[in-house]
Amino acid sequence: MSNSEVSPRCAAVIVAAGSSLRMGFDKLSAVLDGMPVLVRTVRAFLEAASIDRVVVVCPRDRWGLLDGIATDKPLVRADGGERRQDSVMNGLACLESDVVRVAVHDGARPLISPGEIDRCVAMAAECGAAALAHRVADTLQRADERGDCIGPVDRADLWCMETPQVVSLDLLRDAYQRVMDQGGCVTDEVSAVWQSGATVRFVESREPNFKITTPADLALAAGVLKIRS
User: Fold this and answer.
1) Do residues 5 and 49 make contact, with C-beta atoms less than 8 angstroms apart?
2) In the chain, at which end, N or C, are there fewer CB atoms within 10 A of the end residue's CB?
3) What is the pLDDT of residues 42-80, one digit of tens each?
4) How far apart are the C-alpha atoms of 43 and 109, rounded to whole Å?
5) Could you tell me the end-to-end alpha-carbon distance of the chain, in angstroms, rounded to an integer?
6) What residues form DSSP beta bridges with 133?
7) Domain segments of the chain: what residues?
8) Following CA atoms 218, 210, 121, 99 in sequence, which dihedral angle do they give, to the nearest 10 degrees?
9) Contact predicate 111/122, CB 8 Å
10) What residue spans of 2-57 are helical by DSSP H?
11) Could you tell me which CATH number the domain at 10-224 has?
C-alpha cells in the first residue's frame, strides 16, 4: 500500500464494517473466484481512473485481507460505527479538505467494475449527486400484516438502489449531519441527500452489481465472473 500523495478529485469510501450475521460467516473474507470479496471490491476502485484514494471502513482483522494489494493510490482504514451512516461519517472524517466528491460503496458488492464507477463519478460531476441503480422489473404487490395481497404497486418509476453513490463531499457531510441532528437513520446516501432537498441522478447499471447477502449469492457472483472472463 503506497502513501504517495496525489491531488484528489474523487475519493472512495468502502463500507465493510458489518457483522455478516445473515451470512453466518464473514462474507467479506469469503473467496470469490480466487480472491476475498473485499479485495475484489477494493481493487475495482483502485483501478478506476476517476478515483484518487480509497478509505475502507472495517475492523482491523478484516483490513489484513488487503495486505497484498499493490497500488500507487493512498489506501487507508477507518473504524466502523454502530450504524451504516456512522461508518460512512467515520470514513468521510479521513478525507482531506481538497477532496471534491466521494463515492460511497458497499464492500459486499464485489461485481462493480471500474467502468461503472467512472460513469457514476462523471454524472456526479455534472449534477452534484449520482447513484448506480436499476429499474424494478418484477411485478410488485402490497400485502397486509398477515401477508394477504391488497393490491398491485405501479413499478413504472421505481428503482432499486445500488452503490456506488457519488456526492460532493460538502453536500454529503451536511446531509448526514442533518440526519443525525434530527435523530434519524438512513440506509444509503441517496436517502440522506434527498432529505436535505438536493437532487440525485440515477445512473442505470449495465452489469450485475448485487450485494452478497447469502451463500447462494456467492455462487451466483462466481457464475457472473465466469461469464465476464
Assistant:
1) no
2) C
3) 999 999 999 999 999 999 999 999 998 999 999 999 999
4) 12
5) 27
6) 161, 204
7) 10-224
8) -60
9) no
10) 37-47
11) 3.90.550.10
Task: Name the one residue in this structure whose C-alpha cell is 465476464.
Answer: 228
pLDDT tens-place string over residues 7-32 = 448 999 999 998 766 677 799 999 99
Q: Kind of pairing, strands 31-32 and 35-36? A: antiparallel
Q: What are phi and psi of 112, to 5 degrees?
A: -60, 140
The set of residues, in sequence order, having a beta carbon less than 8 Å from that of 190 and lying 6+ positions away, is 129, 131, 161, 165, 200
Q: How far does CA 177 lie from the centroid of its chain?
A: 19
* Residue 105's pLDDT band (cuts 50, 70, 90): very high
pTM of this prediction?
0.92
Which pLDDT does position 219 carry in this prediction?
A: 96
Give the DSSP letter of residue 72: S
For 140, what's the count of Cα atoms within 13 Å in the CB-facing half-sphere?
12
